[in-house]
Design goal:
Elements (H helix, E strand, L loop, with lengths): L1 H23 L4 E6 L3 H15 L3 E6 L1 H9 L6 E3 L3 H9 L9 E5 L2 E6 L15 H5 L4 E4 L5 H13 L2 H4 L3 E4 L2 H9 L5 E5 H5 L4 E6 L9 E6 L7 H8 L2 H9 L3 E2 L6
Length: 261
């Protein structure tokens, strides 16, 4: 009887230990990506998992926030930034694998208004009076000190001579999606976001597009982190595929590299 009990205990211990590696060997990749990537990257991740069986957990926020979280030790395998500055920051802290870095995507910034707004067809050129156009309302964009879309917006408005008058009317959001929401809810009269964001939010309309030469090129670099799991290479390879290119272009992103598969 004692021998049988010992066998049963051993069986339970073996069964329990057999279950543990399922957690230890979980092959879920963690992707930290700029908030503007959410819709497109959700599709990318689903397609990647269907093809490889590797699950993806994505965290979306401003590139500045994500770079700081990675610096503080947040477990991420892939970092997708909405500008080169924050990828450079991550590189300067030795938080990415430089050999995997590539400038993957481009984008543009647009002026948006609530779908119900009477504002329409704004010519964005030198002499733009954005302050007058907003009236008593606010202008939403990302924080111009750190969030990439806000930095692009401020650079463009400075070049067009519209920043000084418009600055007091700005509502600084912690990400481009937060700014988008303010406009969609009519809590801001105008907003400056990426064209790709405006296209996925039915509550807003694009009323003008900023000239590409009014601001630094909008570039989305991607890289594996310094602590990335081996599966990160598969993910980066997929981002370089024709299938990924098609999905990203569907959402309006400009694909900057030649597909490798």
């Amino acid at each position: 009887m004692h021998r049988l009990s010992g066998i049963m205990v051993a069986f339970v211990m073996v069964s329990a230990s057999a279950g543990s590696p399922a957690v230890a060997q979980d092959n879920t990749l963690t992707v930290f990506a700029a908030a503007s990537m959410k819709n497109a990257l959700d599709d990318i991740d689903a397609a990647f998992t269907a093809r490889t069986g590797v699950k993806v957990s994505a965290s979306y926020a401003a590139s500045s926030t994500l770079a700081k979280q990675i610096e503080q030790g947040a477990p991420a395998d892939i970092f997708v930034s909405a500008d080169t500055d924050w990828m450079d920051y991550a590189a300067s802290k030795n938080n990415i694998n430089d050999s995997t870095r590539v400038n993957l995507l481009g984008n543009s910034i647009v002026l948006i208004a609530p779908q119900v707004s009477k504002i329409d067809n704004v010519t964005i050129a030198p002499g733009l009076d954005l302050a007058r156009l907003a009236g008593d309302g606010r202008i939403a964009t990302g924080d111009v000190r750190s969030v990439p879309v806000g930095k692009y917006a401020k650079a463009a408005l400075e070049k067009l001579g519209a920043w000084q008058a418009a600055e007091p009317k700005f509502a600084m959001a912690d990400s481009v999606r937060a700014a988008l929401t303010l406009v969609a809810r009519s809590e801001a009269a105008l907003g400056i976001v990426y064209s790709t964001d405006a296209k996925v939010e039915p509550g807003v309309k694009i009323v003008g597009t900023f000239p590409g030469d009014a601001h630094p090129p909008i570039i989305y670099p991607v890289a594996a982190t310094a602590t990335a799991r081996p599966e990160a290479k598969q993910y980066l390879d997929y981002l370089h595929s024709s299938a990924a290119k098609a999905l990203l272009e569907k959402y309006g992103f400009i694909y900057l590299v030649k597909p490798t598969s």
